[in-house]
Amino acid sequence: CSSNITCLPKMPMALLFLVAIQALSLLHPVSSFIPASIKMHNQPIHSKSVQRRGTQLFANRPASSEFELQELRAQFLAMLNQNIRPKMLAPEKRVEIESYVSNVLRNCQSPIPLRNIADDDSKVLLGNWTLVFASENAALGDLPSDSTVQFAMYPGFKCDYKIQFAKTLGLKSLTAKSSYTVDSSPVNPGLVTFVYEEIVADVFGKDFPVGLFGLLKGRANYIETVWFDGKLWFERGFSRDGIEFYSVYIKE
Questions:
Q1: CB count, 10 Å around CB of 77?
Q2: Is 187 exposed, middle or buried (0-12, 13-18, 19+ CB in 10 A)?
Q3: Which of 2, 75, 141, 193 has the lowest tally of Cβ within 10 angstroms?
Q4: Over the stretch 175-199, which tens digit does the pLDDT of each residue have?
């Protein structure tokens, strides 16, 4: 290559192509209201801030979500600090967290009303959000278990939808640069619609357009918001089989 041309090493490009094939399942909608789906495997969480409580305590207290919210916040922070990704969760841990999420949704209205998320140019969404949990019926396809899914929400309704890889040689991330809208109508309040504009890969610290994703340019994807407090963002989705699941993002 000449000094004026940037060359991509052959092996990372081949690897990039294989991972890009896998990432199609993440960037391609699998239902009318689902931006991604997630499978998780075994990995414990160690958090000194989380204490277990007996079932008798749950039976004797009135319906509330305060305990569950405290547990979720503590465990999600522990997961971030220990680099535990959703696919690393042990089945019993996933079931436990899913029960907390279900209790919050059942007993606590969204602190920020869903239709108000669109107020003031959706400033409450701005910042970096990381996927920390999804229930059993969601799937991240065949992406590596150490993958990190993030949203960087910018002013002007722009967003970077990013998958980061920790152990994939040469490939650091795939990013779908997108625009988005937020629904404030009574029909689907809080529904966030993303439209892909450009897909790029970070290979050895340099961005390269991924031609494979040209087929997805202009396609829409969604987050159906069901609970939001400015720090935690709960999403509901449905699989192709009509099975309901929930995903949770945390603001960093």
A1: 15
A2: exposed
A3: 2
A4: 888 999 999 999 999 999 998 888 8
